[in-house]
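Thread: HIG1 hypoxia inducible domain family member 1C, structure

OP (GT): Posting the sequence first so everyone is looking at the same thing. Length is 97 residues per the record. Can we get the structure tokens written out before standup tomorrow? I want them in the notebook alongside the other entries.
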Amino acid sequence: MSSGNQWSADEDEGQLSRLIRKSRDSPFVPVGIAGFVTVVSYGLYKLKYRRDQKMSIHLIHMRVAAQGFVVGAVTLGVLYSMYKDYIRPRFFNRYKK
């Protein structure tokens, strides 16, 4: 593998250091992961008190909520990235001239 390829896996890099590096590159990834874990944990907690609701309906609601949180976090990350790359440089470069 070429050393200039940023997608190649580094053999010395562990899972935790890779997660930390990825979270620096995209700060909304840990937010999405935390939200997903929170929604799933809450859903499993509420599983005990679901009363007469079917198990499949409860699991579908839990999946939709978790996916919605992750999609929201990804959307916020994309919007932040677009702001950082396109809007902020154009706004601040106008006043530096």
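GT: Both are above now. Quick notes for whoever picks this up: DSSP finds three helices and no strands in the chain. The helical segments are 15-25, 28-46, 55-96.
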